[in-house]
């Protein structure tokens, strides 16, 4: 039986995929749980239109992420932290602090999209920002003593 997935399902496919499964599996499990809809001719037309619109939206999001990436690459941030006399930071630098500094520069970046290794001393470091699936930016930040 041909069905259209309503959401991502492990080992079956991604949302809006058109797949073939056994009749019993579709009728007794997938359809009652609301995970799929039967692939009728009308449903296929609707799916094609949805995919067309989604591709247009995705292209727009990708372009915006690419522009943001170009602006972020090469950007330098300065983050102040309380330190000891030896240059060790009390605590550590977190993604929240980097997100706040980026916000001051005019970039609205979610802290969950920022990755970097642990920072415990004064110095210069790099953070990776995941803007979209395969579009990333790299921001350099310097940790200074307050």
Features:
2 domains; about 35% helix; 3-stranded antiparallel sheet; 3 helices; 4-stranded mixed sheet; elongated; 7 strands; alpha+beta; Ribosomal Protein L9, domain 1; Ribosomal Protein L9, domain 2; single chain; about 150 residues
The pLDDT mean sits at: 92
Task: Please tell me what the overall shape is.
Answer: elongated
Number of helices: 3
Q: What is the terminal separation in angstroms?
A: 66 Å
Please state how the strands of the largest beta sheet are arranged side by side. 4-7-6-5
SSE arrangement, N to C: EEHEHEHEEE
Largest sheet: 4 strands, mixed
What number of structural domains do the residues give? 2
Q: Which architecture name of the largest domain does CATH use? A: Roll
Low-confidence stretches: none
CATH level 1 name of the largest domain: Alpha Beta
- What portion of residues belong to β-strands? 25-35%
